[in-house]
């Protein structure tokens, strides 16, 4: 996808606002590959103003709870990715799409943040025994938290009368047996 600078985006949106044509006409006129790009720019400006067309230099980090809320709203409302992104103040609809795909593939666990970078190469010896006990306890607490969130999500889907994905139906009975196997 081509990157467009702020001045170009502003010119296209102003042309739309001045009645120079619809989305497809302006896309052809300004040599933009897809009219949906023009649509996104116009909707973004209508919601947040022209400053929202500027590229962000720093990356925003979103909590897993926020991502769950966005995905829950998307699933229950039936709105488009763009509409959901604008409602939650996200820079583009691709974020909602990516979060939704991660959720469908890996469940709620896919929405939690992953550690960045390479592991430390320090030569310091760490106490192994205390580390394993702490790590195992933390893993179990984390697993419990994820299972609670997933169960709450399934309950919400049931309450709304929506279909529960097969992946979630199959994982529910196995999750408790996996814990028992790992605790030996």
Automatic annotation (TrEMBL):
UniProt feature coiled coil, ranges: 130-157
Basic residues bias (residue ranges): 115-129
Keyword vocabulary terms for this entry: Coiled coil
Gene3D superfamilies with a match to the protein in the record: Winged helix-like DNA-binding domain superfamily/Winged helix DNA-binding domain
Residue ranges of every copy of the Insertion element IS150 protein InsJ-like helix-turn-helix domain listed in the record: 8-57
Record-level Gene Ontology MF annotations: sequence-specific DNA binding
Annotated region (Disordered), positions in chain: 110-130
Family under the similarity heading: Belongs to the IS150/IS1296 orfA family.
Name by which UniProt lists this protein: Transposase
Species of the source: Isobaculum melis
